[in-house]
Amino acid sequence: MTITSHHRARFTDRTALVTGAGSGIGRAVALALAAEGANVVAAGRRREQLEETVALIEAAGGKALAVTADVSRAADVEAAVAAAVEFFGPLDVAVNNAGVFRGGAPLAELSEEDWRTQLDINVTGVFLALRAEIRQMRTQPTGGAIVNIASTFGVHTRNPGAAAYSASKAAVSVLTRGAALDHIGDGVRINAVSPGAVETPMSLRPGEDDAARAARARTSLPLGRISTTDEVAAAVLYLASDDASSVVGTDLVVDSGATA
Ligand SMILES: NC(=O)c1ccc[n+]([C@@H]2O[C@H](COP(=O)([O-])OP(=O)(O)OC[C@H]3O[C@@H](n4cnc5c(N)ncnc54)[C@H](OP(=O)(O)O)[C@@H]3O)[C@@H](O)[C@H]2O)c1
Q: Does the keyword Oxidoreductase apply (predicted)?
C-alpha cells in the first residue's frame, strides 16, 4: 500500500451534530470534524460560546451552524437534528458530548438538585439525543454513526466524591451498548469514548490550578500527563469515521494509561 498523503478528509460534505460544542472536548471535536470536511451543527445552551466555535471553523475555511439547545429537553434536540438536516442535508454523524459534573462531596452531602441535574443532562440528555438522531439516521440510505462521551469515572475507575456523576457516566456506557445493539440493523453505528482526565476545567480538583493538576498527573498517570482535547477528538473521529465501520457498541478509553 502506498500512502500518498498524510492529510485525511474522512468527513467531506458529511453533516455532523455535536452537543456541548461551545467549549472543551465538544469544541475540539467540532473543529476536528470540520477540518476533515464535515459541515458542523454546534449545539449547546450558551449562544456566544457556540458562535465562537462557528467563527473558528469558518476562519479555517469550514462550514458550521450554531443551534441553541438544552439536551435535557426533547423538543430542543429534535429541533437541532431538524436544523442540521434542513441546513446541511442528511445527518451522518452525531457526537453526544454535553455533560456536567457536580461533585466533590460524599453522597450523603449531595443535594437532590445536583443529583437530578447530572442525571437529566448526562443520561436523559444522551437518551433524547440518541433517539432523535437514530430516528433521522435510520431513514437515510447511508445510515449514520453516533459517538457518546462517557467517562472513565463510569464503569472504568473508582472515584470518591463523584458517585452521582459516575452513575450517570456508567449509564452512558451501558446505554451506548444497548442502543448499538438495537440499531446497528438500521444502519446506525453507535459507540462511546470514555476519557480520563482531560485539559478542561472539569478535571480540576477544588482549589487546583493547571500547574497543580499537571504535577498531580506527572506522578499519578502512567503517561505522566492528562489528555488534550485534540487527543479525545481523534478517538471520536475514528469511531465516527468509516475507519471504524465494523466497530459497534464499544467504549474506547482515552486516559493516559490510568486504567492500564
Ligand atoms: N474534562 C474531563 O476531564 C472529562 C473526562 C471525562 C469525561 N468528560 C466528559 O466530556 C464532556 C465534555 O466535557 P468538557 O470537559 O469539555 O467540559 P465543558 O467544557 O464544561 O463542556 C461541556 C459542554 O456541555 C454543554 N452543556 C452542558 N449542559 C448542557 C445541556 N443541558 N444542554 C446542552 N449543552 C450542555 C456546555 O455548554 P452550555 O453550558 O453552554 O450548555 C459545555 O459546552 C462531558 O460529557 C464530560 O462529562 C470530561
A: yes
Residue 165 domain flag? yes
Nearest to 137 by CA among 188, 82, 80: 188
- Work out how many domains the chain is built from and give that number: 1
* Chain centroid offset of residue 86 CA: 23
Among 165, 190, 196, 226, the active-site one is 165
Distances (CA, A) of 107 to 15, 113, 156, 164, 202: 41, 13, 19, 8, 19
Residue 55 sits in a domain of what CATH number? 3.40.50.720
Query: Which atom of ligand 1 is nearest the CA belonging to 150?
Result: 7
Residue 6 has pLDDT above 70, yes or no: no
User: What's the CA gap between 20 and 96, in Å, rounded?
Assistant: 8
Share of the chain above pLDDT 70, in %: 97
